[in-house]
Specification:
The structure holds 2 protein chains of 2 kinds.
Chain A: E1 3-5, E2 10-14, E3 19-21, E4 24-26, E5 33-39, E6 46-52, E7 60-61, E8 64-69, E9 74-79, E10 88-95, E11 104-105, E12 109-114
Parallel strand pairs in A: 2-12
Antiparallel strand pairs in A: 1-4, 3-9, 5-6, 5-10, 7-8, 8-9, 10-11, 10-12
Chain B: E1 3-7, E2 10-13, E3 19-26, E4 32-38, E5 44-52, E6 55-58, E7 65-70, E8 73-78, E9 87-97, E10 100-105, E11 109-113
Parallel strand pairs in B: 2-11
Antiparallel strand pairs in B: 1-3, 3-8, 4-5, 4-9, 5-6, 7-8, 9-10, 9-11
The chains are: A mainly beta, B mainly beta.
C-alpha cells in the first residue's frame, strides 16, 4: 500500500518569498512517480510538477521545483517568488505506475500568500 | 487536444434520491478513468477506476456504483443518496503524454445531500 503524508495543514508566506511544502511518502514499489497539484477555491486540480523515482535530477517547472530525497522518501515542493495567486490548497500524490494506476493523495496543505 | 467534461457543476439532492454524474473525455482513446471524492478541506479519496469498457474496480465499499458504457464515458451513480455522500466529486483520466505521465481532472461536481 502507498501512503502520502503532508504534515502542514496550513502555511503562510510573504509575497515574493520562497516557501517549501513538505511531503513524505511510503511505498514498497521500486518504481513510482510523484506529483504535486494545486487546487484553488474553484476546486479544479492543476498539475504542477512530476518526479519519477529514477530521475537523476530534481524536477523544475518555472517557479516550482521538487526537492526529491529518495533515501528519506521525501518530495517537497518549493515555490520561489510567491505570488498572491499562489494561495490555494496543494496536494502531493503518487502512483506506482504513473498513467496506468490511480494516484494516492495526501491530505493537502493550505498556502496563504500575504501581501 | 485532450479535454475532460464533467457535469453538473453543483447539485443539491434530497436523502434517498438517485444520483447520476457523468464524465466524458475527448481527444484520446482507451484512457484510464477515475472517480475521486473530496470531503471539505480534505484530500482526494479514490472511489472507482476503470481500464476499459465495462471494467470497473471499486476501492471503497459504499453507497455508490460506477459504469463505463463507452470508451470515453464514465458514470457515477447511486440508487439512494445518504447524507454522507455529500462532497466534491472529481473525474480524471490518465495516459502517457510524451515523457510525462499525466492525470487530467474534470472541473468537479459539488454534491450536497439534504
Amino acid at each position: 500500500a502507498q501512503k502520502i503524508t503532508q504534515t502542514q495543514p496550513g502555511m503562510f508566506v510573504q509575497e515574493k518569498e520562497a516557501v517549501t511544502l513538505d511531503c513524505t511518502y511510503d511505498t514498497s514499489d521500486p518504481s513510482y512517480g510523484l506529483f504535486w497539484y494545486k487546487q484553488p477555491s474553484s476546486g479544479e486540480m492543476i498539475f504542477l510538477i512530476y518526479q519519477g523515482s529514477y530521475d537523476q535530477q530534481n524536477a523544475t517547472e518555472g517557479r516550482y521545483s521538487l526537492n526529491f530525497q529518495k533515501a528519506r522518501k521525501s518530495a517537497n515542493l518549493v515555490i520561489s517568488a510567491s505570488q498572491l495567486g499562489d494561495s490555494a490548497m496543494y496536494f502531493c500524490a503518487m502512483s506506482s505506475e504513473p498513467g496506468r494506476r490511480a494516484l494516492t493523495f495526501g491530505s493537502g496543505t493550505r498556502l496563504q500568500v500575504q501581501p | 487536444s485532450q479535454t475532460i467534461h464533467q457535469w453538473p457543476a453543483t447539485l443539491v439532492q434530497p436523502v434517498g434520491s438517485p444520483l447520476s454524474l457523468e464524465c466524458t473525455v475527448e481527444g484520446t482513446s482507451n484512457p484510464n478513468l477515475y472517480w475521486y471524492r473530496q470531503a471539505a478541506g480534505r484530500g482526494l479519496q479514490l472511489l472507482f477506476y476503470s481500464v476499459g469498457i465495462g471494467q470497473i474496480s471499486s476501492e471503497v465499499p459504499q453507497n455508490l456504483s460506477a459504469s463505463r458504457p463507452q470508451d470515453r464515458q464514465f458514470i457515477l451513480s447511486s440508487k439512494k443518496l445518504l447524507l454522507s455522500d455529500s462532497g466534491f466529486y472529481l473525474c480524471a483520466w490518465s495516459a502517457r503524454q510524451g515523457l510525462v505521465y499525466g492525470y487530467t481532472f474534470g472541473s468537479g461536481t459539488r454534491l450536497t445531500v439534504v
